[in-house]
Amino acid sequence: MVYDGIKESLLEGDHQAGERLSVEQIAQAHGVSKQPVMDALRRLSIDGLVEIIPQVGVEVARYAPEEIDDFFELFASVESTAAGLAASRRTGAQLRELDTVGARIEALTHADDPAERSHGYRVANREYHGVIHTMAHSRIIVDYAARLWDLSDFLINTGPSDLPLHSALEQRHADHEAVREALHERDPDAAARHMKQHILDTVGIIRSERTGTA
């Protein structure tokens, strides 16, 4: 689908915040007319990923720093709730699945290529958190968290860093391990606490990469 293709391009960071998008170029790239592209862009506008400006065109959405702070506060609350529920409801099979994904992230910490670290972490990180969402055994958690994860990936990958989070992969993995241990121990409070801090720390990492202090 055109919608899925454009969204993945945005989540991967192929476009920067505020960048003008060409409907004609997107249509050519997907081998379709302009109408399905505009339909997809309208959906992405509702998702908060692009902005359609009358008489001007379509731009990649831009968010002020305080809006990004607000988002990650909300995101942290949802993810910590999911982790707390997961600690009480997870199955042995789900724990083993999480262990497998965690091992893949650990392997990435030994990679030397920053691009491999950044892209690999984005994919595996979302899978890691997705397993935790399923552990909560709540369709509301799964569906709502998926929408928030799209915006999280977007905010991280449309920022000024070409290779977001690659410099903090070791700490990200350590955070995951703390959450994973709490899930194994069936400790909802610890799982929620570690998860909330893990998400909130994302803002600081993004800012440090922006200023080159990471």
Automatic annotation (TrEMBL):
Keywords: DNA-binding, Transcription, Transcription regulation
One Pfam family cited in the UniProt record for this chain: FCD
Matches recorded under InterPro entries: GntR_C, TF_FadR/GntR_C, Tscrpt_reg_HTH_GntR, WH-like_DNA-bd_sf, WH_DNA-bd_sf
UniProt keyword annotation of Plastid present: no
SMART domains recorded: FCD, HTH_GNTR
GO molecular-function terms, A-Z: DNA binding; DNA-binding transcription factor activity
Domain HTH gntR-type residues, every copy: 1-63
Keyword rRNA-binding on entry: no
Top-level taxon: Bacteria
Protein's name in the database: GntR family transcriptional regulator
